[in-house]
Amino acid sequence: MPIACPTLNCTYCAQNMIAHYHFLCLVSEPKLRSWLPDDLPGTIKEIVEKECEQPSKPALKFDFTLEAAHWNYLYLLKHKNLSLKSALEAQKDSPLGYGSEFRPIETLEPLLAKHPFWPRLKQILTSGSSWDLEDLDEEKRMSDLQEALARGNHKGAKEKPEDLKKLGKKDVDYGFALPIPLTKLLKIPGICLAPVNIAPQNTIDEHGNIIAKDRLTHDQSFKFGSGTSVNSRTKEESLLPCIFGQAFKRHILQVVATRLKYPDVEILGVKIDIKSAYRRMHIAFETALRSTLQFEEEEIAVIMLRLTFGGKACPSEWGAASEIFCDLTNALLNDPSWDPEELYNPQSDDLPEPASPMEGVELGQARELAIDVPISDVGSTDVYIDDLFGFMQPTYLAPTMSAGSKEPAS
Can you give the pTM of this predicted structure? Predict the structure, then answer.
């Protein structure tokens, strides 16, 4: 588990609140602390101090070349006639092993066992993210596959072949996708192919400058002759409840309520992006086979081994982890026994001091809310898929304020 993101918010405990509002920080209430271990900081400290085993080198090759693709195909042939499941199980101690991006289950269990999302996360870390799909008969699957091979990718990807190759190579180089020969695709049982596109995005550099960025998107909603797609066959009732859908509304309510209580102080905000979040979570072998894409000019197909940017189930599956990250963050913030000087992420030493652009600027005032929004004086965190964002009042940063307290410490 990425210890830099210890998190768990009580989203599931307040389903009946007005306007879909649930409070993330009232972990001082006994009924909302039922999922927490008795000694939260101590349990986290034990996890942090445990050494993780070094993964072994995988036998499969992760080079974006036809030579590597053919090597991988021959390797699959040796495992129960092209069984991806057998090939992955043979390398479970490598980065190909399910859950290898997280700490071992037996290490995490004392911390997370009582969280409502833990059973799902535990299943994903044990056997990969498996999407519950409606059946597609073999004849229709093969027909769709042949049509997909003939059609190729979307126009945006075809018009930027070098960018497409660069993005595909990145996923392969990091071990997120397995290259195989495009000409062998029809021979591999269970394969489903969907077109890809290149989506333009913006990001920022370390100086805050906006820079252009391309993302490879996997159109798993595209329908071929069968009239179905991986996404249309995904059973929505099998997915976890969507908690992040109301994240921005909750955040705004918290900020307004805080401004009402503290009309004359600045409110400090923070936003943290979980790097390559989807690529940290493995997908199960049968889901991987249904998440294949092609690079026509290179004559290479790649089987995605991590969550895709286009799978309907992916936000929910990643939410099994990110909602826990968020919940733990709020729980730790509100735990009076937590000493930030003793238990903290060493990377925070490299962060600059909180900066305020508000000097000399008159603070805006909030209007009364139609609903009663409880707030935590130590701030709160929410999460939208892979982005954690929150705020705190300067009173918490002052020497007179102790973690988890409601009033200045004596």
Answer: 0.86
